[in-house]
Amino acid sequence: PAVADLKRIEEKWQHIWDTTPKPPLSPPTENESKKYILSMFPYPSGNLHMGHVRVYTITDCLARFYKMNGHKVLNPMGWDAFGLPAENAAIERSVQPAEWTVENISRMKSQLQRLGLDFDWQCELATCDPEYYRWTQWIFLQLHRRGLAYLDEAAVNWDPIDQTVLANEQVDNQGRSWRSGAVVERRLLRQWFLRITSMVDGLLEGLDQLNQWPGSVVVSQREWIGRSEGATISFPLENDRSQNITIFTTRADTLFG
Question: What's the mean pLDDT in 198-208?
Fold first, then answer.
């Protein structure tokens, strides 16, 4: 029996897909059901790995399923390409960060297209593009003007090799950076904060409306927001009753043992 030349068949149809004009994206009509399928944008490190293939196959299946069921689907792709990892990678290779990043985006885009994934490339973006980050800067300025962004000093997880701050989740159980492997240091650093304490009620009320989110994700978001309800209690010093030590507790009922 003849053996199918799968590589030739794949190349034939991918050429047809690439050269067939696609209609421009348009907003859904009032009667159309719409779906927004948003994958996590990859960091353009140079090549795809199987983790990328797994995640983008899932979102590709979702996009195709909803399209086949009559929904108007938006399934964009972009590149999480702005920040210290790109700079460090470029320094290691003695190239300009912009050059390194653009080359990687081109290579990884070609790999995604070879997988036959049904992304809306008309909506492609890169976070290192000034036309993109001018809007993140604009959002920050609005927060700052309203007193919601402020400078303060706080203890951080510091990676001495990558010279950057790490989230707690980026420090392994041996106290090392997940990326560089360096022993993480605790440092006081003056940095920007967002005053989410002024938005707590709205954020928590919004979580109540996310009926289709996994329960564990909603719980983790509540814990991250971190609102505590309790009491502020003052204890006078034994040797100087005019001075107090004030504490906050969520369990005032346990103070007496």
Answer: 90
